[in-house]
Design goal:
Blueprint (H helix, E strand, L loop, with lengths): L1 E5 L4 H12 L3 E6 L7 H10 L4 E4 L5 H10 L3 E6 L6 H6 L1 H19 L5 E8 L23 H19 L2 E8 L1 E3 L18 H9 L6 E4 L11 E2 L1 E3 H16 L7 E6 L5 E2 H12 L5 E4 L8 E2 L4 H7 L7 H16 L1
Parallel strand pairs: 1-2, 1-4, 2-3, 4-5, 5-6, 6-11, 7-10, 8-13, 9-14
Antiparallel strand pairs: 9-12
The chain binds UDP-4-deoxy-4-formamido-beta-L-arabinopyranose.
Length: 337
C-alpha cells in the first residue's frame, strides 16, 4: 500500500515515515523543504534501510499537486503534516498561514476525489481547545475562538475535512496533538528548529548545550501547583505510532464514522519547572533559567483525556517525560557534535 506523507521531512512527519516503513508500508514523501532539510531522508534511511521516494513539492501550487496525483494513481492513504506551525509568526503574517495551511488542504482533498479511495489523516492540534473549561480535555470539549491564525487554520481545516467527507468518498481521522517532544532513540532524526526555538524543549536542550544563555520561564504566577503553566508533553515516537494505527483503522474500514477525532497526549500534565527538572535529571546538569512575565496567548493548563484514543483507537503513549527529554538531549548533542 502506498501512503503519501506531506511534510514527511518535518519533525512529526519524519518519525511517522519511520513507523510506517517499520509496518511495511510503501511511502512517498512530498515536502517543500521550507522548514527542514534533505538530510532528514538520510536519517530515515539510516533507521529503516529504505531510501524513501521523495518529491520536492509546494502544495500551494495547484497544478503541481494535480500533476503529482496524475503520476500517482495508487495512493491508498494520505497523512497530511505539511503546514506552517509557529503561533507567533501566524499573528504577524496571517495570509501566509491561511494560504499555506488551507489552500494546500483544499487542493489535496480535491485530487483525492479522483483516487480509488480517500483515507485522510489530518495533523490537528490541542490549540483548537484554547483554555478548556474542563481538564483533562476530551474530544467533545468546546472549540474556543482561535487565539491565533495558526490555531484558526486547524479549526477551519477540521471543518473543511468534515464537510468534504459528508458528500465524498473521503474518510478522515483528525489527530489533535498536545505537545510533541523528543527524538528517535537512534538520534538519526529529531526536531530541527530554525533560528531561536519558540518551543520549550528545544530551547532547553540548546541552553543545556550552551547555545542559549538561559531559559526564560514565561510566568510563575499561574494557578498551578508550582505556578508555571502545565502541558501534555508526548514523545514524538509515540505520536508517530498513533498515526499508523489511525491509518490502519481507515484502511481496514474500522472507522465508526466518516470523520473521527482523537486527542493524542499522555494524559499527564507537566509544568515548565517539572520539564526543567526532568532535563536536569537526564543530563546531570543544572539548567540556567529566569522567571519572566507570561507569554501572550499562553493557556494555564492543557493536557489530554486519553480514554478515547486508548479505548477506541487502541493506542496509548508509552514513554515518560524523562525518556522523552533524554531522547531530545541525545539528539541535541548529536546534531551539534
Ligand atoms: C510550552 C510551555 C510556555 C518556551 C505549541 C503550539 C501548539 C502545539 C504545541 C502544534 C508554555 C513555556 C516556552 C520558552 C517557556 N504545536 N515556555 N519558555 O505553546 O504549549 O504549544 O506547541 O500544534 O500549537 O502553540 O508549546 O513549547 O511553546 O510552550 O516558559 O522559552 O513552555 O509558556 O507554558 P505550546 P511551547
Amino acid at each position: 500500500m502506498k501512503i503519501l506523507v506531506t511534510g514527511g521531512l518535518g519533525f512529526i512527519g519524519s518519525h511517522t515515515v519511520v513507523e510506517l516503513q517499520n509496518q511495511g508500508f510503501e511511502v512517498v514523501i512530498v515536502d517543500n523543504l521550507s522548514n527542514t532539510s534533505l538530510n532528514v531522508l538520510d536519517g530515515i534511511a539510516n533507521i529503516t534501510g529504505i531510501n524513501t521516494a521523495f518529491e520536492n513539492l509546494d502544495l500551494r501550487e495547484k497544478e503541481k499537486v494535480q500533476d503529482f496525483f496524475k503520476r500517482h494513481r495508487d495512493i491508498s492513504g494520505v497523512i497530511h503534516f505539511a503546514a506552517s506551525k509557529a503561533v507567533g509568526e501566524s499573528v504577524g503574517n496571517p495570509l501566509l498561514y491561511y494560504e499555506n495551511n488551507l489552500n494546500t488542504l483544499i487542493y489535496l482533498l480535491q485530487e483525492l476525489q479522483q483516487q480509488p479511495e480517500s483515507n485522510f489523516i489530518f495533523s490537528s492540534s490541542c490549540t483548537v481547545y484554547g483554555q478548556a473549561e474542563k481538564i483533562p480535555i476530551t474530544e467533545d470539549a468546546s472549540i474556543q475562538t482561535a487565539m491565533s491564525p495558526y490555531g484558526n487554520t486547524k479549526q477551519i481545516g477540521e471543518e473543511i475535512i468534515t464537510d468534504t467527507a459528508k458528500v465524498t468518498n473521503t474518510n478522515a481521522i483528525l489527530l489533535r496533538y498536545f505537545n510533541p517532544i523528543g527524538a528517535h532513540p537512534t538520534a538519526e532524526i529529531g526536531e530541527l528548529p530554525i533560528g531561536v526555538p519558540q518551543n520549550l524543549v528545544p530551547f532547553i536542550t540548546q541552553t543545556g548545550l550552551g547555545l542559549r544563555q538561559e531559559l526564560s520561564v514565561y510566568g510563575d504566577d499561574y494557578p498551578t501547583p508550582d505556578g508555571t503553566a502545565v502541558r501534555d508533553y508526548i514523545h514524538v515516537v509515540d505520536l508517530a505510532k498513533a498515526h499508523v494505527i489511525a491509518l490502519k483503522r481507515l484502511l481496514d474500514k474500522k472507522n465508526l464514522a466518516k470523520v473521527e477525532t482523537f486527542n493524542l497526549g499522555t494524559g499527564t500534565g507537566s509544568s515548565v519547572l517539572e520539564v526543567i527538572c526532568a532535563f536536569e535529571k537526564v543530563s546531570g546538569q543544572k539548567l540556567p533559567y529566569k522567571i519572566v512575565g507570561r507569554r501572550e496567548g499562553d493557556v494555564t493548563s492543557a493536557y489530554a483525556n486519553t480514554d478515547k484514543a486508548n479505548n477506541v483507537l487502541g493506542w496509548k503513549a508509552e514513554s515518560t517525560l524523562e525518556q522523552a527529554m533524554e531522547s531530545a538531549w541525545k539528539w541535541e548533542q548529536k546534531i551539534r557534535s
